[in-house]
Amino acid sequence: MAALKYLLIKEVKQFKANPFLPRLAVVFPLMVMLVMPWIATMDVKDVNLSVVDQDRSSTSEKLIKQIEASHYFHLKTLNITYEEALVEVEKGKSDLIMQIPQGMERDWVNGQPVEIFIAANAVNSTKGSMGSGYLNNIISDFSTELSRQKGEVAAFPVKLSTQFLYNSHLNYRYFMVPALLIVILIALCGFLPTFNIVTEKENGTIEQINVTPVGKGEFIASKLIFYGVLGLFIFTVAFFIGKSVYHIAPYGNIGVIYAGAVLFLLFMAAIGLFISNFSITLQQAVFTMFFFMMTFMLLSGIFTPINSMVTWAQYFTYILPPRYFVNIMRSVCLKGSGFADLWFDFLMLFIFMAIMSVIAVVTYRKQQ
Amino acid sequence: MENVIEVQNLVKKFGNFTAVDNISFEVHKGEIFGFLGANGAGKTTAMRMLCGLSYPTSGSGIVAGFDIRTQAEQVKRQIGYMSQRFSLYEDLTVLDNIELFGGIYGVSKREIAERSEQLLEKLQFTSEKNKRVKDLPQGWKQKLAFSVAVFHRPQIVFLDEPTGGVDPTTRRQFWEMILETAHNGITVFVTTHYMDEAEYCHRVSMMVDGHIEALDSPQNLKLKYHAASMGEVFDLIARGAKRSD
Amino acid sequence: MKEFIAFVKKEFLHIFRDVRTLLILIGMPVVLIMLFGFAISVEIRNVNVGILAPQHEVLIDRLANKIDASEYFTVAKWLTSDQEIDPLMKQGKVDVVLAFDNRFASRLYTKDGAQLGILVDASNPNIAASEAMYLMGIVQNYFQNNTQQQIKTGGLSTNVRMLYNPQLRSSYNFVPGIMGLILIIICALMTSVSIVREKETGTMEVLLVSPIKPIVIVFAKMIPYFVISCVVLLIIFVLSFTLLHVPMAGSLFWIVIISMLYVILALSIGLFISTIVDSQMVAALITAVVFMLPVLMLSGMLFPLESMPKFFQWISSIVPARWFIAAIRKLMIEGLAVQYVLKELAILAGMTLIILGVALKKFNDRLE
């Protein structure tokens, strides 16, 4: 075990001696945490709406006023034909078209049903469906209000109230910042260990280590420990920024978050070393890790929800350890969940970490 | 005489290519054993098998009393190794490297401090001890690599082309260090393709295309082949070689 | 010219000898585009609904059945007390709770009305808003249908049409994004790492002292990667078209032209990076980590540009992927004519010229 100490000292000294890595380890989390939360927003706002009013009545005017008052839509163009509105959409100047049919006021007074036509640019499907959904709600409210004024029984006998729990202001940042921490960890703490062994191979220093009696376990452990601790440092810096700048409040126990972080970081270090073991050139290692990184980032529910995936892809996510850590981070930060609520995620994370560490040791070959 | 290395019918194949083809030999304790041959003759591959870096395809080898097939890790405790390519950590300092490898071999902290001080003084490196290895001239790097390979006082030290790319003065100094090491009781197993260096060895083997074609003391070989120098001996033996770079 | 061909041949041999890297290069985009094309989506699906009903009522059963029958929701739990909500949400077992009033049915059509609360786990604000909106829609629809049978009434209704993407498939939105991401990272990574590798091993020096002009050497290195990129591009097109059913609505000719331009731009970026760094590890970290994030986050692939603060919208205009993705969306999905993407085309061409120019100049400077 004495060798482990010397190997650890060596990793630290090499890291410090590198002109680029220590800077990257500080600047990258800072940059990501200070910049990305402003970008990572899916708030659907400033939806541009073109109104084709064929009725031009006081009722249609009232409806348009009500839409304007919602501050959700930018009324772009009025008094145009549907064809003109469509050109606006094609140019990207307008997202939605609302067409009020001729004779709306008259039909409505006569108790006839009136249909308002909405066309949404659904290339961005979130924007398309959310925008048209909101517009739909406004029109529905308007309709109920009209009926009430007319003294009719409202078509809708239920008082609906919506309550948003855990994130009452629907702040997208509270949702995204805990996951951005994980993006940093995947990118940095996955790539740094990947380069480690393969660099030793390219420089030939691995020969000098392999010819010593140092155990495989000790050699890999020294790297796992080093990258684990480095990762915790990076995580702490990023977490502190998240807390002080964006007020992501861990409602739950911070210990739960750190327990998850340790398991996750060790897993990332182990998979990096495993890839490194298998690669002869740095280029191979980079591409392999890049593949894993993309999969981890895009399929673990960080940016798009796992529930929205097709069913087979949802099953696939069970073999992606970041999935569990993403859930732990968000549940603890937003909902205040604890170990008891998240035992399954912790168990899976632990199993993956243990298996991957063993694989990293076993696949490391001292003798060809 | 006691043997520290015994090799029998050792073979290493890479696919269809047989790098080392059925070699057998012994190395006596305390001798300087020269392993000669052209580039690509299989010297390095054979040496890597003896060091436990490469697994033999067939045949057997005992190094310092341990089997290279089944007890590679025990073998590694008894040996030192200097590879053909400079392979200390270039981004660490001279002292960092000495401490690292001393520590890995289990030399105590006090011993490391004592021995490294002596070593640096002897090499006249003391002023450079905190310099990064990459900033040292090539000859100094080689001397450092050799010193690190014998720092933990192994039974045998394996040197793979230790004088490659070094000027003649440094080469002579280097061989003085090797002779001194042997004098202290460490067996030296050295590969080289400089034939004049063979004169320093107690015994040499000549490898051609994966086979050992001759094995004897330089004196006897020159007599046998009626040659004036080891270079001529090698030319005579290697005439039929197929592989070479 | 003869030397040039000989050089290109050498580079090809180099690449083909490393079968594993080649497999990763070709295989990775295939796997990624399949995985992401199918998996990434922001449509809401598989929402677990909890029904909080103080008493058993037929009306509630019927409404629950209606909700369960919709493609978005699954009734996962029946609750009797609001104490149960928090633990279930913390464990992630339910996403939404529909909380019915005491003696719900009998309170309908009374003065105070029957209360119905929608409690949403708003960790993910967008999903929460959509869930609430859809659920409200189902409830409203249910009562409107019931009521209209009793009382004949007029009122406004809407007819919504989703343009260009009628089934609201996210893949339409994500495929151009993924193309933009994969192409630029792979191309830039390939060139930067392989050129820096030659620097590290010293073979670059050998090439540069040869009588061949440096510019010839550079192009010879880039051509094989250009060919590989084109193969990758072809595969992505075929997969998107056949398996993901992404429409090729616009001119295939211009889609290909823009893509090739983008590939050349990416290769130039790789060349540029290789001129400013000296180690493979740094080249890989800059391309795969530092460069990857802006491409992922500032290109409009995941996060709509118009939701960002103005400053970042402005910053995003230097991200090449932004223009590529915009152009491909217009051409491939909206099927617009080439005159609508002239701006994007011009910007990409300009960027290519500038970066290639700077990279070549730096490359030559280093020699002198």
Give structural notes.
The complex is a heterotrimer of chains A (368), B (245) and C (368). Chain A is α/β, with parallel strands linked by helices and 368 residues long. Chain A folds into 2 domains: 2-40 and 168-362, no CATH class; 47-150, abc type-2 transporter like domain (abc type-2 transporter like fold). Chain A is built from 14 helices and 5 strands. Chain B has a single domain (3-238), classed as P-loop containing nucleotide triphosphate hydrolases (Rossmann fold), CATH 3.40.50.300. A 6-stranded mixed beta sheet of chain B has the order 6-7-8-3-9-10, sandwiched between helices. Chain B has a 4-stranded antiparallel beta sheet with strand order 2-1-4-5, with helices on one face. The termini of chain B are far apart. The model of chain B has no long low-confidence stretch (mean pLDDT 89). Chain C has 368 residues and is α/β, with parallel strands linked by helices. Chain C folds into 2 domains: 2-40 and 169-367, no CATH class; 47-150, abc type-2 transporter like fold (3-Layer(aba) Sandwich), CATH 3.40.1710.10. Chain C has a 4-stranded mixed beta sheet. In chain C, helix 14 (320-333) packs antiparallel against helix 15 (342-367). Chains in contact: A-B, A-C. Chains A and C meet through helix 2, helix 5, strand 4, helix 6 and strand 5 of A and helix 2, helix 4, strand 4, helix 6 and strand 5 of C.
For the record, the count of structural domains of chain B works out to 1
Backbone CA Rg of chain C: 28 Å
For the CA atoms, what is the radius of gyration of chain B?
A: 18 Å
State the share of residues found in helices of chain B, binned by percent: 25-40%
CATH C-level class of chain B: Alpha Beta
| Helix and strand sequence of chain C | HHEHEHEHEHEHHHHHHHHH
Query: Helix/strand-derived class of chain B?
Result: alpha/beta
Helical amount of chain C: 55-70%
Return the average pLDDT of chain C rounded to an integer: 83
Strand content of chain B: 25-35%
Number of domains of chain C: 2
Shape of chain C: elongated
Strand % of chain C is 5-15%
The H/E string of chain B reads EEEHEEHEHHHEHEEEHH
Derived structural class of chain C = alpha/beta
CATH superfamily of chain B: P-loop containing nucleotide triphosphate hydrolases
Largest sheet of chain C: 4 strands, mixed
